[in-house]
Amino acid sequence: MSGSHGGGRRPPGESLGRRNRVSGDDPAAQKAQNAEAPEIPNLIGRIRALFAPHARKLIVTVILVLISAGLSVLPPLLIQRAFDQGLFPPSGGPNLQRLTVLVALMIAAYLTTALLGVWQTWLTATVGNSVMGELRVRLFTHLQAMELSFFTRTKTGVIQSRLQNDVGGVASVLTNTVSSVLGNAVTVIAAFVAMLLLNWQLAIVAVILMPILVFAQRRVGQVRARIAGKTQESLSDMTAITQETLSVSGILLSKSFTRQKAEIARYSLENDNQVHLQVSQQMSGQWFFAMVSIFLSSIPAIVYLVAGLLLTNGATDITAGTVVAFTTVQARLLFPLLGLMRVALDLQTSSALFARIFQYLDLTPAISDAPDARPVPAVTGRVQFDAVTFAYPDADVDARPTLDAVSFTIEPGAFAAFVGPSGAGKTTVSYLIPRFYEATGGRVLFSGVDVRDLEQESLVSHIGIVSQETYLFHATIAENLRYAKPEATDAELEIAARAANIHNTIASFPAGYDTVVGERGYRLSGGEKQRVAIARVLLKNPEVLILDEATSALDAISERVVQAALDTASRGRTTIAIAHRLSTIVTADVIFVVDRGRVVESGTHSQLVAAGGTYAELYAEQVPAPLPEQAREL
Predict the structure, then answer these.
(1) The sheet that has 415-419: what strands, in order across it?
(2) I need a surface site. Which of 103, 322, 455, 630 has the fewest CB within 10 A?
(3) Residue of 2 and 484 predicted with greater confidence
């Protein structure tokens, strides 16, 4: 959900009243921001750079376009010759020999143009779709590098819309722009030259109103670009609604609160807005194109009238073949000219989509490897916090930090637990160790090295995490397990599953390890999902294991089974448990009590109970008071 941390949970120590309403958290502000295309420096140059790797195919395309465009104006010139030299020669009757040659040349020109067109279409389709695919992968890759806080403040549907709707929205432009611009431009220029060669007076009549059309086209393009931005933002909202309400969790929520009608109304409202925007986008400029079409279609009639006036006044020696050829050239000018204007409009419209894509590509990850970052040199499993202070990026600047000068050391192989009131900062500790968030002060050390000096991929490869909110893909159990180790054998899967106390359960399913778990693993029980997640971590075999309230959402029976699996998983490796139920960590080597962002106590269970401090109070709240003697006798 937008504005949340930690997979939908609000970060410890953060209250809703203390948060800034940044653009990513304010839907109205975000909508207004996205509807207006962002300003991207050198946008045209960056779009052009997308095609640079395909320069060879583009050069061939340009050559084909130039040849095709040149051939397209040859038939009208041959038509003039056919009329004046073949059908109606000055010497008398038709010259069939001359006419046959001219007709053959016309057919050859049409055939060559068609064949070149097929080749050109394949090239442009290949280049356009390749660029689109590369752009989509590039955007996906960049998003993978973004820090966790970016995803906690941005709706998943909005991110999906950038990948699907925005990139898909420019597909036709990427596919058709090169050939359309070049082909139509050359055709228009060649046709105009041919018209000048045929009769310069008629050429002036045919193009006199062109500047007015160009100006009108620019105005229409600006309107369509604004509508395109609003249309894509509406698509983002629809994608977000679909992702939120049609997921398993969303459906369960809407059914539980009988909110289906409300969700349908919300979707219908945005759908109506989308329909209105789509109609507006398609209708914008239609009156303009209708007027252009009427104007260009009327030119032949005007040409006939002007030719008649010129012949009447003796101002020209124009022939019938010239008039027919001229109107044929002018007719061939209609579609290329309309095509150029439409491409110009499409380019203006797609610029908003390109700008939105580049806006995401220009995001700088808040957490990245330092230039001299190195792999973990020697993994010992020691974890240290040295006066670590941390505040979430969107917290008020004057608010109390989530962690305040926290220091502790967890020795290799030790079982350490963090307990404390809700919102104290326990989960935040688990975020800072793998560097999902960056400490704002102090140092976090892994195996004696500041995590900022380590390659994050190397760091995380030595850490396994089991959280309360287990995430399983809509795939088989085996595929979910192999997410940790793709090359794992079936025997390795079974060993990990047995260690997690889940093998017998899996074996009881008709499809065994090929059982599909369903969306987010909803075909499994909570305890089964959690044990599959533990088996997945065991397959990774990390030196440090982080357990973030891994059993807090389970019933007592499932908790005992999962806890036994966790005990096996933690054996022989440094284990850090974020615990709500204190009964799960009484055997820990050291327990750190966190309250209001500080470590206020540390020690073993017996030491902390004897001290009578915060831990003793928490433990007393969870342990039932002994029954009175009379009640026990009864």
Answers:
(1) 463-467, 544-548, 574-578, 415-419, 590-595, 598-603
(2) 630
(3) 484
- Asked if 268 and 305 sit in the same domain, the reply is yes
Same domain, 152 and 213: no
In-domain check, residue 499: no
Same domain? 431 vs 284: no
- Its domain, for residue 304, covers 200-317
Based on the fold, state whether residues 209 and 184 are members of the same structural domain. no
Q: What is the pLDDT of residues 261-300, one digit of tens each?
A: 888 888 888 888 888 887 877 776 666 667 666 766 676 7
Q: Report whether 550 contacts 566 (CB < 8 A).
A: yes
Q: Is residue 420 part of a domain?
A: yes
Q: Is residue 513 part of a domain?
A: no
Banded pLDDT at 231 (limits 50, 70, 90)? confident
Asked, for residue 515, whether it belongs to a domain, the answer is: no
- The larger pLDDT score, comparing residue 17 to residue 347, is at 347
Same domain? For 81 and 185 the reply is yes
Size (the chain), residues: 634
Residue 17 CB neighbour total at 10 angstroms: 7
**Bridge partner residues of 444 (DSSP):** 385
pLDDT, tens digit, 9 for 90 and up, residues 109-126: 889 988 988 888 888 888
What's the CATH number where 463 sits? 3.40.50.300
Cβ count within 10 A of residue 269: 12
Residues with Cβ within 8 Å of 263's Cβ and at least 6 positions away in sequence, in order, are: 241, 245, 254
- 376 torsion bin: left (phi>0), alpha (psi -120 to 50), beta (else): beta
Nearest in space to 76 (alpha carbons), one of 29, 110, 101 = 110
Q: State pLDDT tens for residues 241-258.
A: 776 677 656 665 676 667
Do 434 and 574 fall into the same domain?
yes
Instruction: Assess whether 268 and 389 both reside in one domain.
Output: no
The DSSP letter of residue 165 is I
Residue 230 maps to which CATH number? 1.20.1560.10
Residues 311 and 460 in one domain: no
CA distance 191 to 106: 16
pLDDT of residue 600: 94
Tokens read off for 594: 């966190």
491 against 280, higher pLDDT: 491
Give, as one character, the DSSP assignment of residue 403: E
Q: What is the pLDDT of residues 168-224, one digit of tens each?
A: 777 666 666 656 776 777 777 777 777 777 777 777 766 665 665 656 656 666 666
Integer Cα distance of 317 and 303 in angstroms: 15
DSSP, residue by residue, 93-132: S--HHHHHHHHHHHHHHHHHHHHHHHHHHHHHHHHHHHHH
Please count the structural domains in the chain.
Answer: 3
pTM, entire model:
0.68
